[in-house]
Fold this sequence. Notes:
Layout: H1 8-21, E1 29-33, E2 39-44, E3 47-50, H2 59-65, E4 70-73, E5 76-82, H3 83-89
Parallel strand pairs: 1-5
Antiparallel strand pairs: 2-5, 3-4
Amino acid sequence: MENFGINGKYIQTLSNAIARKNGFGFASQISFKSILKPIIGETTNYGYRKNSTGEYVPKAYINNFGWKNCYYQNSECEVILPLRYKAISLR
């Protein structure tokens, strides 16, 4: 993630608000493109996944087979902001 200086906190707060509005906890990545409105880019839901295939596994699977082949995936959310926000952040 880029360092936006003093107004970077504003950009991060704005991005987190957009992510929360769309059902995600926070913005893990921020991008800028020539668009009119902020949008959500690539996302990954949280949960337990298999190391071998990366597929989601329910809690019951872990209770039966243990943690040998599993890991916890935090949610990830990319927020794409219009270029005019980048100009604001660099002032």
